[in-house]
Amino acid sequence: MRNIWTIVKKELTRVFTDKGVIISLFILPPLTIYLIYGLMGMSAEKANKSANEYTAIVYVINAPDKISSNEKEAASFEAFLDENLEINANITYEDSNKLVEIKTKLENEEIDLIIEFPSNFKETVENYIDTLPKVNMYYNINKTYAENIYLSFQNTLTLYENKIAGTRVDLDLLKVFEIVKDKTGDDEKEKGSAISKILPLLIVIYLMAGGMGIGMESVAGEKERGTIATLLVTPIKRSQLAIGKIISISIISVLSSIASFIGLLAVMPSFAKIGGDTEEGFGKISYDLTDYAMLFTVMFAAVLLFVAIIVVVSTYSKSVKQAGTLVMPIYLLVMGAAFFNVFTQDIPQSISSYIIPIYNIVLALKAVFQFELSITNWLFTVASTFGYTIILIFLIQKMFRSEKIMFNK
Amino acid sequence: MLKVKNVTKTFRLSKKQMKLENTTNHHKIAANDVSFEVEPGEIFGLLGPNGAGKTTILRCISTLIKPDSGDVLIGDEMISAVNEDNKARGYLSFLTSELKLEDHFTPNYLFNFFGRLYGLDDETIEKNKQKLFNQFGINEFAEVKVSQLSTGMKQKISIAVSLVHDPEIIIFDEPTNGLDVLTAKTVTDYLFQLRNEGKTIIVSTHIMNLAAKLCDRIGIIIDGKLRMVGTLDEILKSTNTTDLEDAFFIIFKQVKEEEGGAL
Q1: Is B87 close to A235, i.e. CB distance below 8 A?
Q2: A244/A130 same-domain check
Q3: In A245-369, at which residue ranges do the beta strands (DSSP E only) sit?
Q4: Candidates 3.40.50.720, 3.40.630.10, 3.40.50.300, 3.90.180.10; correct CATH number of B34-91+169-263?
Q5: What is the number of helices (H) and of strands (E) in chain A?
Q6: Per-residue pLDDT tens for A235-264?
């Protein structure tokens, strides 16, 4: 135990007395997260604001006047637009003979939209002629906000169509029943479901990334510098050396992850503006003590496993550069397992799902956020993950004994 | 007391190594049935050209690698370095230019760190530190990071750290390699002091003068085989020469003639 603690202390001293390492592990990640997500949030907010403030330039050709039938009357299209249009628009009304000239303006991106009614629109509608009149809408897809402007006018036209239909029949007679929305279920669970999509992914990525830099360097770097052999001629047991390395890197990994999460939490209000919805934000769900206990034990087991994997790769590698190359596919695999879970809705309850390495961690994290992690599944996740870590520690100490791995340059 | 008994170690060569060694053989016998003994209070020198197998034998003794066959027995209890490697390491000190110290730390920190790994209490560590740091003049830079020190200073720290546990057996691979004259003198003087304290010392070198001056007995190793073992006088007498370098070349020539190879 004393030897393990000696190794842990030495590794931590090395990290915490090196300004460069402190900056790269604990300051740069949260700062980068804060800046990147903050900028994304600001850009999204700015984009939304610009879209709302933009005044569309629209031409309406042959805008129909008031339409009457069955002694009922629909307002003119111009009056209807004034009343119902939800976006800012500068609307000009013209005849068909100007259409070619206006279309050229559209091609030159000088205007946003043309709505063309047929010249006989009013007569056709009022006289119930079989062939439905065609209302053409022209817009230039290369123009900013063109799609939004088109959709907004399309909705307004649909409303206008309903208004005209209302002059022909009593719309109330067409109603047969009313749908009453009565939402049941656990609100917390619904919010938890939203969180469970993204948080397991972030937790897994940060936990693994936090240990990667220092973990890859832990043995491969010592091999490169020739310092590992100095350790190996001392009476320390190889298993103690492996455990000492894993514990110290795990501590560093957890601290680095916490730093990254602080950055993430700090930027969350700004980041939430990307989706424009903050209702499902963090901190609005109350998990109880059991949930937190399960969450932290799963995370604890996960970080040990991730670090053990990194140390295996680092021990096998001849250099830090090779370790970096070899660890990348494993990192992608871990990310793959996490991404896979983002798109799955149902939480499997079979025990077998909770013993698949790495996948079980993401699954358990997802389940705990959705209040669906049973004690049995939690136990299997934590126990199997500890089991895999012990196997890897055994493998590392075997590797420490291998001349080919430790001394083959 | 150190007993090397019939140690044989073979390495598999990579294609690159085969090309470098100019051989079609996939294996190289680095140590071939090597046996010798070193008594307490004696400095034994392994003398041989580069690639003769000196470092391989020292690595087998220091437990860094395991021999294919044979054994290394250590101390009065005759602990097997092959079967009880962890226990054996407590009696050994292995120093080579290949073994480096983490240069982020100070000599003081490293001495304490290795002292703890050897299971020493703080009092013993402090006592040994005072002795060794005074011996090598490390006190004045005890709190300076190793990265900021010269090669000679680093070598002194390496020696001090390797002797933290006051070992019975000291293995030194090329002890003066890369050192300036003054540091080399400090090192050789200290080896004499350790011998006088009754330590069992084994050094490897390819420098004839150093072997002649430093070693009580010399083992000449060529192509992984120990060709002759004896005191300087015995070797000179048996080769009918007056100089170790001449003696070495006679033995080397004999070996190559027996093998039918070129010199």
Answers
A1: yes
A2: no
A3: none
A4: 3.40.50.300
A5: 15, 6
A6: 988 888 888 988 898 888 888 878 877 887
